[in-house]
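Batch manifest line 108
LIGAND: FE2/S2 (inorganic) cluster
JOB: complex structure
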Amino acid sequence: MNVTQNSERVRVGTQGEMPEGFQTAVDMDGISVLVVNYEGRFYALRNNCTHQDYPLLGGEVSMGRITCQKHGAKFELATGKAKSLPAVKPVRLFRTEIEDGVVYVSAL
Ligand code: FES
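JOB STATUS: finished
ARTIFACT:
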């Protein structure tokens, strides 16, 4: 996906390119950030499970939570909180914004 960056935020793509259920990852200052369209809202969190070093991208999303594919930990998209073992620590959250139909992420 085409990513351009300025000092504050990273362009993810247009809303039209990212329908409900869509997931992608963008690089933000060397950190991989997962962006998910869940029920029409965009959520962004660090693309890294806090149990072990494993990407969350591609995990199943339901009930507002994404499941790590490695051992099944679940994280709440809205808060980053770990909701299921074996993870206990939260995942870092990022802010999403939509401007003129374009989705951006920035640090919280
Ligand atoms: S690495 Fe994600 S649950 Fe173990």
